[in-house]
Amino acid sequence: MFGAVLLIIDTLRQNCLAFAVTQPVPRRPGRPSVLDTRAVSVGALRLWTDRGFATTGWNDLAGATGISVRTLLRHFSSRSDIAWIGVAPATERLRDALVGAAPEDPPSVVVRAAIVESVSRDPRIHELAPAWLRLIASEPELAATAPRIYRPWIDTLSGYLADRSHGGPAAIHRAIATAYQSATFAALIEWAESGARGDCADSVDRMLRWMDPHLPG
């Protein structure tokens, strides 16, 4: 009798465990686990285009994006971080392209191809790019934050150059990487100001071909 009771209790315990494993965990109410950064950038860019960057605050951004001030501050430490939201993904694309490059390819070809690959070809991004570039170029506050924002991008490229050169001053590698970043941004600005015709990545490729003689190969 006692053994039968233990068997029943054990069976019930196993059923309860199975039920607990198979039942979905209820979602807690509140903010979504993933923030739609593109929606944030679209709403913010439209607001800044209409009213200017310097004259808008967090409450304005909350109204334009439909996201609470508290949630925005949880994800962005400053308004400029929203404006520069596309640089981190571009840095990841640059890093992936450099890592995946064939070791026998000349550095000049690898660097140019990797930078072009880092420029998004997403049509939705292209729609926003001209207005974003004009905003970046015209707002002193955003221009002042550019060195900090682009540091990981420059570090990624200078690290590759150091690995391929097998020596040489680190300052030289960083200077070359900074020059490539400046040329890339100049190409994007030129593309936007000339009417944003064609693919902006192609404009970057044409600009960077002028940089090829400065690297081996």
What do these coordinates show?
By secondary structure, this protein is an all-alpha fold. The chain has two domains: 33-84, Arc Repressor Mutant, subunit A, CATH 1.10.10.60; 86-212, Tetracycline Repressor, domain 2, CATH 1.10.357. The protein is built from eleven helices and no strands. The chain has helices spanning 2-22, 37-51, 58-65, 69-75, 79-83, 87-99, 107-118, 123-138, 140-165, 170-193, 200-208. The N and C termini lie far apart (86 Å).
The CATH architecture name of the largest domain reads: Orthogonal Bundle
Overall geometric form: elongated
- Based on CA atoms alone, the radius of gyration comes out at 25 Å
Please indicate the count of domains: 2
Distance between the termini: 86 Å
Please give the CATH class of the largest domain.
Mainly Alpha
Instruction: State the CATH superfamily name of the largest domain.
Output: Tetracycline Repressor, domain 2
Helix and strand content put the structural class at mainly alpha
**How is the CATH topology of the largest domain named?**
Tetracycline Repressor, domain 2
Number of helices: 11
Note the run of SSEs as H and E: HHHHHHHHHHH
**Helix-residue proportion:** over 70%
**Regions with pLDDT < 50 over 5+ consecutive residues?**
1-33
- Give a quick account of the main beta sheet: strands, pairing sense, barrel closure: none
Number of strands: 0
Average pLDDT confidence is 82
Our estimate of the beta-strand percent is under 5%
Pfam family, one: TetR_C_14
Domain HTH tetR-type: 43-82
GO molecular function, one term: DNA binding
InterPro entries: Homeodomain-like_sf (IPR009057), HTH_TetR (IPR001647), MftR_C (IPR041347)
